[in-house]
Amino acid sequence: MSTLTHDMTADMYFKVFVALIILTVITFLQPYVIPGTISDTVVAQLFIAVIKATLIGSYYMHLKYEAPLFRYIVLMALVVLAIFFIITASDAIFRNESFDLFQ
Amino acid sequence: MTETTTPEIVYDKQGNAHEVVDFNNDYIGAKLGFWLFLFTELMLFGAMFLVFCFFFYRHSGNFVIASGNLNLILGGINTIVLLISTYFMGMSLLNIKQNNIEKSKKMIYITIVLSIIFLTIKYFEWMAEIHHGIYPDSQALNALSQGEILFFGLYFTMTGFHGIHIIVGIGVMLWAIKLINSKKITNEKYVVLENIALYWDIVHLVWVFLFPLFYMISFGGAA
């Protein structure tokens, strides 16, 4: 397994840092530039957050350079969380509907 | 009580048996173990985000109103502070690998200072809320709508948990400096520092989602 993370350079850290700063500025500006309804705002904000999270995971947490096993652990965590979120979302959205499975 | 263990045997290409006495610091094992811990961290914060999303969906109007009470400037400064601190944490790891011991230590100290700045700002933010009479189960809070009560309950719980992680982070960073001083973290044996850097990135990652969900949703009511 190649898990030695010698591929990382100071240059890469700085580039990712600049990218994260730019994305953070976009986070602050988004409501002024493209004002929208509550759901628009949430979707736009979370979209930026996911991009930031991907950058942090891939480069700062060097998953890009790790053995596949480490990526599978993260993938598993995301799958488990996704299952929780989907089941709970179906409860939140369809509660008290005629076809509510949880009644 | 004495424990008897079966020695672990490995074989070389000629088929000769060797007893395993040491895994040479087991770099991969140490990192794998830490990633499993990070898995549980994702579950911990993931579950809290799940609760947040459920009630946000059901009380979105009240959540937007409550979110307007938070100090966006202080939250924004904290976002930047944490972002810069993760950069320095990463650089300290890079420097230790390149055997720049003093530079690496300096980077950890900068990270610690930034963490303390984060906590100080957080303290003033919480104090502002508490001075307005808003804290869990306060009279002023209980008089508000159910959505606002839930919002502030989650706000104090989640930023509180996040704050505890920052405090623990400062503790392990000081420990890392102690290990560097006693030559237990070197340019060849740096997995402890690497794991601390991973931990710090997770703490940052949580904030990346906390900030928009708690602070930025206040803009939702504009349209």
Account of the protein in words:
The complex is a heterodimer of chains A (103) and B (223). Chain A has 103 residues and is mainly α. In chain A, 72% of the residues lie in helices and 0% in strands. Chain A folds into two domains: 66 residues; 37 residues. Chain A has three helices and no strands. In chain A, helix 1 packs antiparallel against helix 2. The longest helix of chain A is centred in the C-terminal third of the chain and has 27 residues. With 223 residues, chain B is mainly alpha-helical. Chain B has one domain: Four Helix Bundle (Hemerythrin (Met), subunit A), CATH 1.20.120. In chain B, strand 1 and strand 2 form a beta hairpin. Chain B starts with 8 loop residues before the first strand and ends in a 9-residue tail after the last helix. In chain B, 36% of the residues are buried. At the A-B interface, helix 1, helix 2 and helix 3 of A face helix 1, helix 3 and helix 7 of B.
Question: In the CATH hierarchy, what is the architecture of chain B at level 2?
Answer: Up-down Bundle
Distance between the termini of chain A: 50 Å
Total separate domains of chain B = 1
Q: Low-confidence parts of chain B lasting 5 or more residues at pLDDT below 50?
A: none
Strand content of chain B: under 5%
Count structural domains of chain A: 2
Q: What is the radius of gyration of chain B computed over CA atoms, rounded to a whole number of angstroms?
A: 23 Å
Q: Helical proportion of chain A? A: over 70%
> How large, in whole angstroms, is the Cα Rg of chain A?
19 Å
CATH-level-4 superfamily name of chain B: Cytochrome c oxidase, subunit III, four-helix bundle
Topology record:
The complex is a heterodimer of chains A (103) and B (223).
Chain A: H1 10-33, H2 38-60, H3 68-94
Chain B: E1 9-11, E2 17-19, H1 27-58, H2 60-67, H3 72-97, H4 101-131, H5 139-142, H6 146-181, H7 191-214
Antiparallel strand pairs in B: 1-2
Helix pairs in contact in B: 1-6, 1-7, 2-6, 3-4, 3-7, 4-6, 6-7
